[in-house]
Automatic annotation (TrEMBL):
One Pfam family linked to the record: HD_assoc
Organism: Craurococcus roseus
CDD domains, per the entry: HDc
Name under which the protein is recorded: Deoxyguanosinetriphosphate triphosphohydrolase-like protein
Keyword field: Hydrolase
Similarity section: Belongs to the dGTPase family. Type 2 subfamily.
Domain of life: Bacteria
Feature: compositional bias, Low complexity: 1-15
SUPFAM superfamilies, per database record: HD-domain/PDEase-like (SSF109604)
Keyword Hydrolase: yes
Length: 398
């Protein structure tokens, strides 16, 4: 895909590495934390990033599914490896666009903290069980994790992140027209301005997730044998990158040509975002981060041709990977595990560990449903499978 070289901010950044675009979030102008804390040597957003990395929820991403359940193999991506890849792309984009790199990285690292075990299958299972109580949304659960469920600090629940980081976690995909109950509950304490766009840094984290997700699923799908590189290369975006690889390395075997092709697709998408963001910011001429928030449309985006090409990749993955019979089998088994865990614990909260039982109240109550949901959402794949065995197999000690 051709990419127009952006002018303005990037050229200024090339002349001065310390340059920040006028619409970048300024750490010195942060709106602060719900619980005031003295500053330290780090920027407030760098401090947020460090707190996210040291959180329990972040560690648990290591054993949470991306697409394949953990026993499928050690080389497939997990939520943790996906998150690290998103953070790398987000930081690179933020640097190219002269935005705050620490904030973009913090948001990328936090974007999947609320995902339950078993990927989208686990999320669908929890959503179905929680429908009478407002449903389940992993973005809302991410906000809940960093504002209340993490209990590492003596002075407050959660991680006490800055307003800018919390705003980006809540609405990095755009203004919230119908916020989830957990987001509304927190917003009543700490107004995140849910009807506006998030900062450009949050938009960078969101689009970095799109770039990483599709491309790395292409890589994992080829490696798992769900489809071939040649089949993926029929897609317009992949075709161009694959042709470049074959022209440069005509005798390269597929196992090396696939990651080389995916790498070039990622690069083409990054260049497209930089160019399109340059076009949009020149048209809008934002003078501040709040100007970006108030804009009608996002400023960080793919061009129309890239959006269409990306949708074609997503459609291919949906039919050839996410609905492959092997993935379907794992998803159905995972859903049943998650649903049964919820039903057993919702009906018998006395079986919950003490911390969660204290929150649960009576069996079958809304409070019990929320405590059980939070407990299951924090599980890894293998912990959920072990808990299922403990609750259903009389031969397994409780």
């Amino acid at each position: 895909m051709p990419a127009e070289a952006p002018r303005g901010a990037e050229s200024a950044a090339a002349r001065d590495p310390g340059y920040r675009a006028p619409w970048a979030v300024r750490p010195e102008a942060s709106r602060g934390r719900l619980h005031p804390e003295p500053a330290d040597a780090r920027s407030p957003f760098g401090r947020d990033r460090d707190r996210i990395i040291h959180s329990r929820a972040f560690r648990q991403l290591q054993y949470k599914t991306q697409v394949f359940v953990f026993h499928e193999g050690d080389s497939f991506r997990t939520r943790l490896t996906h998150t690290i890849e998103v953070a790398q792309i987000a930081r690179s984009l933020a640097r190219r666009l002269s935005l705050d790199e620490d904030l973009a990285e913090a948001l990328a690292l936090a974007h999947d903290l609320g995902h339950p075990p078993f990927g989208h299958a686990g999320e669908e299972a929890l959503d179905s069980q929680m429908r009478p109580y407002g449903g389940f949304d992993h973005n809302a659960q991410s906000l809940k994790a960093v504002t209340s469920l993490e209990q590492r600090y003596a002075a407050f629940d959660g991680l006490n992140l800055t307003w800018e980081t919390l705003e980006g976690i809540a609405k990095h995909n755009g203004p919230l027209r119908r916020p989830a109950p957990a987001i509304l509950a927190y917003n009543a304490l700490h107004d995140l301005e849910l009807t506006t766009h998030a900062s450009a840094e949050a938009q960078v984290a969101a689009i970095a997730d799109d770039i990483a997700y599709n491309n790395h699923d292409l890589d994992d799908g080829i490696r798992a044998g769900l489809f071939t590189l040649e089949e993926a290369a029929a897609l317009p975006l992949v075709a161009e990158a694959h042709a470049e690889v074959r022209a440069a390395y005509p005798d390269l075997e597929s196992r090396r040509a696939a990651p080389e092709t995916v790498r070039r697709v990622i690069n083409a998408m990054i260049e497209d975002v930089v160019a399109e963001t340059g076009r949009r910011t020149r048209a809008l001429a934002p003078t501040s981060a709040d100007h970006v928030r108030a804009a009608r449309d996002p400023v960080v985006a793919f061009s129309r041709p890239m959006t269409e090409a990306n949708l074609a990749v997503r459609d291919f993955l949906f039919h050839r990977m996410y609905r492959h019979w092997r993935v379907n089998r794992a998803a159905q088994k995972s859903k049943r595990v998650s649903q049964l865990l919820f039903q057993l614990l919702h009906g018998g909260p006395q079986m919950l560990p003490t911390r969660w039982a204290e929150r649960a109240g009576g069996a079958g109550s809304p409070e019990c449903a929320q405590a059980v949901c939070d407990y299951i959402a924090g599980m890894t794949d293998r912990y959920a499978l072990e808990e299922h065995r403990r609750l259903t197999d009389p031969n397994v000690p409780g």
